[in-house]
Structures are given as C-alpha cells and as structure tokens.
Specification:
Layout lengths: L1 H129 L12 H16 L3 H14 L6 H14 L3 H10 L9 H15 L2 H14 L6 H13 L1
C-alpha cells in the first residue's frame, strides 16, 4: 500500500516536471516570438518616425496645391465671366450703334425729302397761281373753288397743318377725280400721311397716284414708296420699289438717287 502511494507520488512529480519543462519551452517560444515582434515594432516605429515628416510635408503640399488649383480655377472662371460681360457690352453697343446709325440715316432722309418736297410744293403753288388755263369742261366742282381749295390745302401742307391739308385734298379727289389737278391732289394727300409718319396709309395713297392716266407725279410717287418702306424698316421691299423706279423711269430726276439707294440696300 505504502509502496503504491510512493510510486504514485513519484509519477506525479515526474509528470509535473515534464509539464513544467513543456510549459517552459512554450514560454520560451512565446518569448522569442514576442521578442521578434518587439523588434519588428521597433523597426516600424523607426521607419514611421522617418516617414512621418515626409508624409506631413506631402499632405501639406497636396492641400496647398489643391488650394492653389482652386484659386486658379476661380480666377479663370472670373476671367471668363468678365470677358463674357465685355462681349455682351460690345454686342449691346454694336446693336445700339447700328440702330442709332439707322435712325440718323432715316432722319437725314426725312429732312432731305422734306426740303425737296417743300421746294416742289412752292414751285407748284407758284405755277398754279399764275396758270390762267381754263378748267376742264368735265369738272364737277366750280373751277375757281377747286383751285382755291387746292392752293389752300397745299399751303396748309407747307405749314405742317396736315389734318386741314388732308381734309382739303381728300375733298378734291372725291369731288372731281377727272380734274387736271386730281392726280396732284392724290399725291399731296399721300405726302401728308408720309409727313405724319403714317407710312402704311401713305403707301396706300401713293399707289393710287398710278391710277390717274397721264399723271406727271408717277415717278415722285414711286420714289416715295421706296422711302416709305425704308422708313418702316422693310429694306427688301424698299429696294424693290427703288429698283422699279430705275427700271420704269430712266428719265426721272430721281433716277440717280434711286440707283444709289438700290446699291446701298443691296449691300446691307
């Protein structure tokens, strides 16, 4: 019994020694692994200590570069916007300049037309007052009254009293369209509307001048058709009317003027 107990005790001691030996080996292995990991950690810490400033510098450079890039981009965008604004201003100025030039040209044409028309009206008024030719037998209105109303209406036109002038010439055209002065009355009626810048109505009245046989106001009316369309801004139609004067009235005193107008409107 005692012998068995001693054997068991010896066995346990041997087992303990064996287990201790194995544990010691495992501990040494673990310590070796820990030592190796510590070395690797130290190496990594050393490398990180070396690389950290470079990483920081690189990060700062990247941030600065992005900021600079953003700044350059913003500057470029602002520059583009400024250029676009300048282009818009130049376009607006060009458009305003074109419209201003057109308005000035239209005003000059109106002034020139007014001077010529008034000169013609005074000449005509002078000739009518001196004319002692008997009135046509077909007159439906007293010849003296017809002449008086005509002179009065033409005088009103010269005084820019267009409403009174329109009333007088309209009465003459309606009362006696066969009168020798009927075509002239129709023409000056159209001139009144033209002077009022009622170009649409003026065009209608100028076209009626051509319905009078043997009228000597046809080339005058043809010129004014071109000027009326030009004043309305319908340059294509104006060019057609000026070209018609060139084609059908080669002996007109307005031939050269119409030829120049056709060239100018063709270029435009």
């Amino acid at each position: 019994m005692i012998k068995n107990i001693l054997q068991l005790f010896v066995f346990l001691i041997c087992l303990s020694v064996s287990l201790y030996s194995q544990s010691d080996k495992q501990i040494r292995v673990l310590n070796d692994k820990i030592a190796k990991q510590s070395v690797r950690i130290d190496e990594l810490e050393t490398k990180l200590t070396i690389l950290l400033p470079e990483i920081q510098n690189t990060l700062k450079a990247t941030v600065a570069s992005k900021q600079q890039s953003d700044s350059v981009a913003i500057m470029i965008i602002n520059r583009i916007n400024m250029i676009q604004n300048k282009i818009r201003l130049l376009e607006d100025k060009a458009a305003y300049s074109d419209s201003t030039n057109f308005e000035v040209l239209a005003q000059l044409v109106m002034i020139e037309n007014k001077i010529i028309t008034l000169a013609n009206s005074f000449t005509e008024l002078y000739n009518i007052r001196r004319d002692q030719t008997p009135a046509s037998p077909s007159s439906r209105i007293n010849p003296a009254e017809y002449k008086r109303i005509y002179i009065e209406s033409l005088s009103n036109y010269q005084s820019s009293m267009y409403a009174q002038s329109i009333s007088g010439f309209s009465k003459l055209v309606i009362s006696d369209p066969q009168n020798d002065l009927a075509d002239n009355s129709q023409y000056w009626l159209a001139e009144c509307y033209y002077s009022q810048k009622n170009y649409k109505r003026a065009i209608i009245e100028f076209e009626k001048v051509f319905t009078f046989a043997g009228t000597d106001k046809d080339d005058d009316a043809q010129l004014k058709l071109g000027l009326a369309y030009q004043s309305m801004g319908n340059l294509e139609k104006a060019r057609e009317e000026f070209q018609r004067l060139v084609d059908y009235f080669p002996g007109s005193e307005f031939y050269d003027r119409a030829t120049i107008a056709v060239k100018q409107l063709t270029i435009e």
